[in-house]
Every structure is written in structure tokens, then in C-alpha cells.
């Protein structure tokens, strides 16, 4: 007995609405995540300076670093080049001046570690103003 003689078979169909919904959600997700990619870049505007006579600063400690890794504080050789030794030399050079500016004059071929050692010594001495010197080409 075939009770469905008069009915036609339904054609199989693929419902595209859920697939379109999923694709739209993926598209929205991609659009949102790509708009934040410009904020992950590091944009730096470098300062510009005109060459002229540098300002005379009475509260400056000059630290020189040679390519061989030897240090001089205010043109006086440092006997103990460790961070603690440099720190005591910086305190002695500062005397009773509050918060001096540490100017690091490093040779172009000096190691990065030697510059970091001076920065660490300034931190140990409690001095937060550090600057570097460069040479105009």
C-alpha cells in the first residue's frame, strides 16, 4: 500500500541562510580585528634640534665610556667598573647637588652592556635624569 501516490517528492535543498549568517559573523570579526592593527605599530616622532651652543648646565655629571669598556666620571677614571662602584662614583661627583643630570658619552663601538651599567648605577644612586650625547654627521 502506497498512501503517498498523489504527493510529489520534495526536492532536496540546501538552506543558505545559516551559512550566510555564519559568513557575516566571520566578516564582522575580521573587520573589527583589522581596524586595531594600526594601533599595534609604534609611531615615533623624533624631536628636531638646530645646532647651536648647548645650554650651560651646572648640575651635570659627564660619564664617558670608551670602546674598550673603561669608564670616566667627570674626566676621572673609575677604579671599580661594577654598577655599585659606578654608583658610588656618581654620588661622589654629585656632592650635595640634588638630582643631577647624568650625561652619557659612549663611544660608537662601546657595548650595550656598558651603557646599561651606567644607567643601572644612576638608578642605584637615585638619579633619574639621564641623557645621551651624539655627534652631528
Task: Tell me about this structure.
This protein has 137 residues and is α/β, with parallel strands linked by helices. Helix content is 33%, strand content 15%. It has helices at 17-35, 83-94, 112-125; strands at residues 60-65, 71-73, 76-77, 101-106, 129-132. It has a 5-stranded mixed β-sheet with strand order 3-2-1-4-5, covered by helices on one side. The termini are far apart. The model has no long low-confidence stretch (mean pLDDT 80).
Task: Describe the secondary-structure layout.
Blueprint: H1 17-35, E1 60-65, E2 71-73, E3 76-77, H2 83-94, E4 101-106, H3 112-125, E5 129-132
Parallel strand pairs: 1-4, 4-5
Antiparallel strand pairs: 1-2, 2-3
Helix pairs in contact: 2-3
Concise account of the structure shown:
The protein is of the alpha/beta class and 137 residues long.
Average pLDDT, all residues? 80
Strands, count: 5
Helix fraction, binned, reads 25-40%
Order of helices and strands: HEEEHEHE
Fraction in beta strands: 15-25%
Please describe the structure with a list of short key phrases separated by commas or semicolons:
single chain; 137 residues; alpha/beta; five-stranded mixed β-sheet; 3 helices
Amino acid at each position: 500500500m502506497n498512501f503517498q501516490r498523489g504527493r510529489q517528492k520534495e526536492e532536496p535543498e540546501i538552506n543558505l541562510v545559516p551559512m550566510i549568517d555564519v559568513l557575516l559573523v566571520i566578516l564582522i570579526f575580521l573587520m573589527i580585528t583589522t581596524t586595531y592593527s594600526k594601533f599595534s605599530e609604534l609611531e615615533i616622532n623624533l624631536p628636531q634640534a638646530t645646532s647651536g651652543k648647548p645650554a650651560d648646565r651646572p648640575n651635570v655629571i659627564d660619564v664617558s665610556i670608551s670602546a674598550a669598556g673603561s669608564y670616566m666620571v667627570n674626566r676621572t677614571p673609575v677604579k671599580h667598573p661594577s654598577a655599585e662602584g659606578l654608583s658610588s662614583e656618581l654620588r661622589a661627583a654629585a656632592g650635595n647637588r640634588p638630582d643631577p643630570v647624568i650625561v652619557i658619552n659612549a663611544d660608537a663601538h662601546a657595548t650595550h652592556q656598558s651603557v646599561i651599567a651606567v644607567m643601572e648605577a644612576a638608578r642605584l644612586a637615585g638619579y633619574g635624569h639621564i641623557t645621551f650625547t651624539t655627534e652631528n654627521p
